[in-house]
TrEMBL record:
This is Rieske (2Fe-2S) protein. PANTHER family: 3-PHENYLPROPIONATE_CINNAMIC ACID DIOXYGENASE FERREDOXIN SUBUNIT (PTHR21496:SF23), FERREDOXIN-RELATED (PTHR21496). Keywords: 2Fe-2S, Iron, Iron-sulfur, Metal-binding. Residues 4-116 form the Rieske domain. It comes from Leucobacter denitrificans. Residues 150-173 are annotated as: Disordered. Signal peptide: none annotated. The lineage of its organism: Bacteria, Bacillati, Actinomycetota, Actinomycetes, Micrococcales. Residues 151-161 have a biased composition (Basic residues). One of its GO terms (molecular function) is 2 iron, 2 sulfur cluster binding. Residues 162-173 have a biased composition (Polar residues). Coiled coil: none annotated.
Length: 173
């Protein structure tokens, strides 16, 4: 398991998603009003490509029948096959939260640009600290990094295969 750079922050605007290939699995990465979330591109009901073709929509909530209703846009995704709906932040099904859940991945935003990401161990480079005379390097863009580990450990970073940026609606199979 490892961490993969999947996009620059500026390439994934609020309400948008991308689908990438990580370790042979298709994973959807979503920007929900500036927060990033990643889900396996597979519906737990019958296996539809949920992230690739699901419709993203908002979520309305109230703590009681007469309480104020809050609305959050781009918070949920609806499966293109049988219309099950899931919370993008948690992967939980609104229909059956206890038993139906899409696998969720950890996502973090790391300062830097993709060219900075090097797998030191794979390249046989010794870890620092190394002291040398250097020049100032500026950070031009931030990166969105998906962690495929169930338990977070290690610091390996790699580039993901970016598949495509998808529209918010899709066709039924
Ligand atoms: S395959 Fe997604 S709801 Fe049936």
């Amino acid at each position: 398991m490892a961490k993969y750079t999947v996009a620059n922050v500026g390439d994934l605007q609020p309400g948008e998603r991308i689908v990438v290939e990580l370790e042979g699995r298709s994973v959807g990465v979503f920007n929900v009003d500036g927060e990033f979330f990643a889900l396996l591109d597979q519906c737990p009901h019958a296996g539809a490509a949920l992230c690739s073709f699901g419709k993203v929509f908002g979520k309305s909530e109230a703590v009681a029948p007469d309480a104020e209703i809050t609305y959050e846009r781009s918070r949920s995704i609806r499966c293109p096959w049988h219309q099950w709906e899931f919370d993008i932040r948690t992967g939980e099904s609104f229909y059956d939260p206890a038993n139906a859940r899409v696998r969720k991945y950890n996502v973090e935003v790391v300062e830097g640009c993709p060219e900075d990401v090097i797998d030191l161990e794979a390249q046989g480079i010794q870890k620092g600290p190394h002291i040398l005379e250097g020049y100032h390097v500026s950070v031009e863009e931030d990166m969105v990094v998906v962690d495929t580990s169930r338990v977070r450990r290690g610091t390996q970073s790699r580039r993901a295969t970016r598949v495509t940026q998808l529209p918010s609606t899709g066709a039924r199979p």
